[in-house]
Specification:
Blueprint (H helix, E strand, L loop, with lengths): L6 E10 L2 E5 L5 E5 L12 E8 L5 E4 L9 E10 L3 E5 L6 E4 L12 E9 L4 E5 L18 E9 L3 E6 L3 E6 L12 E9 L5 E5 L4 H16 L5 E2 L7 H8 L3 H13 L3 E4 L3 E4 L2
Parallel strand pairs: 13-15
Antiparallel strand pairs: 1-2, 1-4, 2-3, 4-5, 6-7, 6-9, 7-8, 9-10, 11-12, 11-14, 12-13, 14-15, 16-18, 17-18
């Protein structure tokens, strides 16, 4: 059987009154209804189609573009709701079902929600859940410090914004590092700023030129976080020996690093005293 929720590159096997029957190399077949039949085709041609269940719960192919596929996150609008659950517009004729138990909050028609699309093994149906934290996992990490990553904003918190990293992990973007309006469902690029011992991940929005000096900037941030009063008694006028003894950096590398941190509003500099980590 062709896997539901995915695109398949299939061969046109035969033309029938209800539509084209398409096959894969294993001989599994699916109907492409007449409404999606290309205007010009020949038996043996290849077609890329999306496979899901129609209104009669039968596998069917479509050339329409879905807004989400199996095991993906998406920000979708609620088209309808009833006693059984909610129905999301995902670009296909039959809406994507969200059971009540899978709604983090009761879904309201015309409102949009961040969801995860998965296959319900009991019913063999594609369904969605807005309880997205169930579908991320930080137990085994696939990212490292300073990796460039894809982010999806899930929800604001007192500290900033929870984000999904590469559609796999959960991370936190601190609000004092955000200089643009963000909302649930936004997709953007970021960088892994810090991985904590409990595998919690801090991320930062990527900025031009940031990666080249990030290791030194991170070294200073780490030192500040463990220092008394989040303060280091060194600055751009300090002697090179003092800077090296404190953070093990040359004066040139130190000045570049604090320049980045100051530009990103992560530290404050008090002339003649040193640098403070901003809260």
């Amino acid at each position: 059987m062709l896997e539901l929720g995915l695109k398949h590159n299939l061969t046109i096997d035969r033309d029938t009154p209800p539509g084209l029957f398409l096959k894969n190399e294993a001989g599994d077949e699916v109907l492409l209804p007449n409404k999606y039949k290309p205007s010009h085709f020949e038996i043996g041609d290849k077609l890329e189609v999306f496979v899901y269940l129609d209104f009669d719960e039968r596998p069917v192919a479509t050339t329409l573009e879905p807004k989400v596929m199996l095991d993906e996150f998406a920000y979708l609008k609620c088209a309808d709701s009833n006693d059984f659950g909610a129905f999301l517009d995902w670009g296909l004729e039959k809406h994507l079902f969200v059971p009540h138990i899978e709604q983090a909050y009761k879904m309201i028609p015309a409102e949009s929600y961040l969801i995860f699309c998965y296959l319900d093994e009991e019913t063999n149906r594609l369904v969605a859940s807005s309880r997205v934290n169930k579908f991320v996992d930080n137990s085994i990490l696939t990212v490292e410090h300073f990796d460039e990553v894809d982010l999806i904003v899930t929800n604001p918190t007192d500290m900033g914004f929870n984000v999904i990293i590469n559609e796999i992990h959960l991370g936190l973007l601190y609000k004092d590092e955000v200089f643009q309006e963000l909302k649930t469902g936004d997709r953007l690029k970021g960088v892994i700023k810090k991985i904590r011992p409990d595998n919690k991940i801090d991320v930062s929005l990527q900025r031009p030129g940031y990666r080249g000096i990030e290791p030194n900037a991170q070294k200073i941030l780490d030192k500040l976080e463990t220092s008394e009063d989040r303060f280091l008694p060194i600055h751009d006028k300090s002697k090179p020996e003092l800077i090296y003894d404190t953070v093990h950096l040359s004066k040139k590398a130190f000045k570049k690093a604090i320049g980045t941190l100051y530009k990103n509003r992560q530290i404050s500099i008090e002339n003649g005293k040193g640098i403070y980590l901003k809260k």
